[in-house]
Amino acid sequence: MDEASARLLKFFQGRRLTPVQRRIAHCLVRWAADAPYLSSVEVARAAGVSQPSVTRFAVALGYDGYPALRRALRDPDRRPLGAVGAGGAVATGGGAAGPVVEREDAAAGAERPAGDANPHQQAVLAELEHLRQLAALLADPRPVEEAARLLAASRPLPVVGLRAAAAQAAGFAWFAAKVHPDVRPLTVGGSELIDRIEGAAGAGAGALLCFALPRYPRELVPALAAARTAGLRVVLVADTAFPTVAEPGDMVLPAAVGTALSFDTACAPMMLGRVLLEAMCDVLPDAEGRLERFETRAAERGLFVE
Predict the structure, then answer these.
(1) What SS3 state is found at 165?
(2) For residues 206 and 168, what is the distance between their CA atoms, to the nearest angstrom?
(3) Which stretch is the leader sequence (predicted)?
C-alpha cells in the first residue's frame, strides 16, 4: 500500500459508517492519489453509488458537504469535525450508561496497523487489535464473573440479539443450552418480542442477556425497556462501554466491532460471549454433568461425523 492510500485509510478508520459509505471510503482509498481532486459525481460513479450518497458520506464524517471533505483530503493536517455514526448518531453513544467496567471505550484508541498490508490484511490486523484490547479488559475478571452469576441463576435465561446481532445471540444460546436448563434465544423483533420477554420474566427469569451491536435496531429500545420494567437485570455485550441502548443499572461488557470492511466484523464480541459462557460454566450446578450427558447421547445417536 502506497503512502497516499495508507494516509486515507487512517483518515477513515474508526468511523461508524453505513455499508454504502464504506464502499465510498474504500473507493477513495483505492484512488488515493486522485481522491482529493475528484468531484462527488466522479466518486459516485467509481464507487457505484448515487451522488447524494457521497454527500451523506461527507456529512457522516463531520463536514458540511463533499467540497469540505475534499479540501480536508488535500490537507493532511485538517481534521474532521467529529466522529459521527451511521444515520447521524454519535458513534460513541450517549446517556448515563452506568457500565460495570469504568474503563476506556474498548473501541477507542486502537492502534491501527500500518505498513505494506493490503486492505484485507488491514481488516484482519485491526480485528487482532480488538482482541488484544479485550484481553486487556479481561485482566479484571470481576465484571464478567458478576454477569455470569446473574445469567447462570436466571431460570429461564432470555438471550436477545436482533438483525446483525442475531447470529451472536443464537450462537451463545446454542452452546449455553448445553449447560443451562432453560435458555430462550430471542432473535426476531416485532410485537411478539416484548411478549416473550415478559413471558420469560413471568416464568421466573431474573436477568436478560442482550448482544447490542451496531447498527442498533430501533425495536431493541422498547424491548429492553420492557425487560427492565418486568424486573429483569439487563446484561449487554456491546461494541462500546456506552451504547445508546443502555440505561443506568445495566451491566455493560464492551468488545469492539471491526469497521474496516463494508460490513461489520464481530470477532471480539463473539469471543467475549464465549468467555462469559465459560464463566457461567464455573458457577452453574452440574454443568460438567450436563456436558457429559450430552456427549454420551450424541455418540449414541451418531450426531457427528468423526
Answers:
(1) helix
(2) 21
(3) none
Chain segment 95-133, per-residue pLDDT in tens: 333 334 333 344 433 444 445 788 888 889 989 999 999
How far apart (Å, rounded) are the C-alpha atoms in residues 236 and 250? 7
Angle (deg, nearest 10), helices 51-60 and 19-30: 90
For 138, the 3-state DSSP assignment is coil
207-212: strand order across its sheet:
183-186, 157-160, 207-212, 233-238, 251-254
Q: Report yes or no: 17 and 258 within 8 Å, Cβ to Cβ.
A: no
Span 18-27, average pLDDT: 82
CB-based contact 209:160 (threshold 8 Å) = yes
Nearest to 194 by CA among 219, 168, 226: 226
Q: Which fold has domain 119-297?
A: Rossmann fold (3.40.50)
Strands (DSSP E) found in the chain: 157-160, 183-186, 207-212, 233-238, 251-254
Distance in angstroms (rounded) separating the CA atoms of residues 83 and 66: 16
- The span from the CA of 16 to the CA of 20, in Å, is 12
Q: Residue 48 region, left (φ>0) first, then alpha (ψ -120 to 50), else beta?
A: left
What pLDDT does 230 receive?
97
Please give the C-alpha separations between residue 226 and each of 79, 96, 206, 208, in angstroms, as whole numbers. 41, 19, 13, 11
- pLDDT value of residue 283: 92
Q: What's the grid cell of residue 14?
A: 474508526
Cell of 84: 459521527
Out of 1.20.1250.20, 1.10.10.10, 3.20.20.10, 1.10.340.30, the CATH code matching 3-88 is 1.10.10.10
pTM of the complete model: 0.70
Spans of all domains in the chain = 3-88, 119-297
Partnered with residue 90 across adjacent β-strands are 84
At 173 the three-state DSSP class reads helix
Beta bridge partners of 238: 212, 254
